[in-house]
Amino acid sequence: MSASSNYEELEMRCASNFREVINNTNVKHVINLSGIINEESLSRHLSSRKAVEIELRQGSYHITTLRAGIIIESGSASFEIIRDLVEKLPVMITPKWLNTKCQPIGIADVIQFLEKVLFYKTVFDKSFDIGGPEVFSYK
Predict the structure, then answer these.
(1) I want to staple 76 with a disulfide (CB 3.0 to 4.6 A). Which of 28, 54, 71, 137 is the partner?
(2) All domains of the chain, ordered by start, with CATH?
(3) Is the CB of residue 68 less than 8 Å from the CB of residue 34?
(4) Each residue of 50-74: b (16+ CB within 10 Å) or e?
(5) How far is residue 64's CA from residue 52's CA, in Å, rounded to a whole number?
(6) 66-75: pLDDT as tens digits
(7) DSSP code at position 25
């Protein structure tokens, strides 16, 4: 998202290219890790994620989408952004989005979900929200 002011177009082009390439292989199942889409009015980021999911569903393969909120633990882009903010600006006027509720999930749990849905036919062509047991604000 930080590479371009028009990341939506880049993500859609990547999804389309991916779909076209995978359609020409023997791949039977694609797992898409996306963001939770739980509101009618979506941010640019989540609108782009939803559009990518729709594009990927046009393929000749089965697809399972796992929709996660913030993935916590070192290495997650969202986690790194928040950690950088806290380390560099311990006191600041906070943006409105810090009050947004989220259901964070650990990276180990995400990996378990990814492993468990692979080639599991009952989840083909479906989407699932995944998250940890507690709801927090980003604050």
Answers:
(1) 71
(2) 7-132 (3.40.50.720)
(3) yes
(4) bebbebbbebebbbbbbbbbbbbee
(5) 13
(6) 999 888 887 7
(7) S
